[in-house]
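Hey L., structure's done. Input below.
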Amino acid sequence: MSEAVKTGLPGWALILIYFIILAILAIFGDLFIFILGAILETVVFAAGYNAAKGDH
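Output:
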């Protein structure tokens, strides 16, 4: 059987997306939404990064 090649976004793209979402939260949300959204976004991106990279 052939292995499935798993392609993902490069690191710079993930960082760019992270900051774009933070900017959207800062522009369109109030302080509470910005803080809560930044914490939740950080948790989601960290979990996704760990799942994508595995235990290396």
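The mean pLDDT is 84. The helical segments are 11-28, 31-53.

-- N.
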